[in-house]
Design goal:
elongated
């Protein structure tokens, strides 16, 4: 019965937090729309927002450590150290997953920066600047190249091999589009073709590729939602069992059959998530 009480308290607390947060946001919007235009908040809302911002700042870059308090709570409810051991083991795995997600976002940000670079260089060329000066302005304005910016800027400023510098920068994650910029530059220098026209077409191609990727991601959002729901079903089942007084944590953590079921279920859950995620990622890579 204590597990049912704890589960009910957790659910009630989460529901109350969602209701209070939603109402506070609704009141804030109503004051701005129908009031005198000011966004004055009560003292408790300001303290809540201040605490939330401090918590976000504290957890920035360290969100994987949230596994430990969750594991501690499960260990207290289940009266076992196994959840805490599992939580400690999950920290590096969650850190690795978060790092991969951040790297993917950084690659997408850099790819968008290459498109902005093409547009900036085209604008400078049509304004009458020399190609080297236009590239310097574009590189400095977008800041997309990171460590490779120094080499490209030096080549553009001192008349070096700009296509070679751009080709080397294109090896960085997310900067694949710079290979097209290097090709346009080489054709313009060797064949006398218009650099602005080539970069304009390259920018259009990169934007079309981004739109295709976004449309594909939107179509696969339902598949990712299904994966998330399937991952949460065991947790929902345990919560329902605790609410009914079945003591699932005690059965899973304090009996041989429960431990076997817990290990097998965890392995099957991990295998299912990996399999489903691989299928969806394969669809994204098409």
């Amino acid at each position: 019965m204590p597990e049912a009480v704890h589960a009910a308290a957790l659910c009630a607390g989460a529901a109350a937090w969602m209701v209070v947060a939603g109402r506070s946001q609704g009141r804030r919007r109503a004051r701005v729309l129908f009031g005198n235009g000011s966004d004055e908040s009560p003292w408790w809302e300001e303290r809540w927002e201040s605490g939330r911002r401090r918590l976000e700042a504290l957890l920035r870059g360290r969100r994987e450590w949230l596994c430990l308090p969750v594991a501690l709570l499960l260990g207290v409810l289940g009266e076992s150290v196994l959840p805490m051991v599992a939580g400690a083991a999950a920290v590096p795995l969650v850190r690795r997953w978060l790092r991969r997600r951040e790297l993917r976002k950084d690659r997408e940000r850099r790819a968008d920066g290459v498109m902005d670079l093409c547009g900036a260089v085209v604008g400078e060329l049509r304004a009458g600047r020399e190609p080297g000066q236009a590239l310097l302005v574009g590189v400095g304005g977008t800041g997309v190249m990171g460590a490779a910016e120094a080499g490209v800027s030096a080549a553009a400023r001192f008349g070096g091999d700009v296509p070679r510098a751009l080709g080397q920068a294109a090896r960085e994650p997310g900067l694949d589009g710079l290979a097209g910029v290097a090709a346009c530059w080489r054709v313009a220098v060797d064949g006398g073709a218009g650099l602005a026209a080539g970069l304009d077409r390259l920018e259009g191609a990169l934007r079309a590729e981004r739109r295709r990727r976004e449309e594909l991601r939107a179509q696969l959002a339902g598949a990712w939602s299904t994966v998330a729901v399937l991952a949460l079903l065991p947790v929902l089942g345990m919560g329902l069992g605790a609410a009914l007084g079945a003591h699932p944590l005690r059965v899973l953590l304090h009996s041989t059959a429960g431990l076997v079921c817990l290990v097998m279920g965890g392995l099957l859950e991990a295998a299912g998530l990996l399999w489903a995620g691989r299928i969806v990622r394969a669809g994204e890579a098409v």
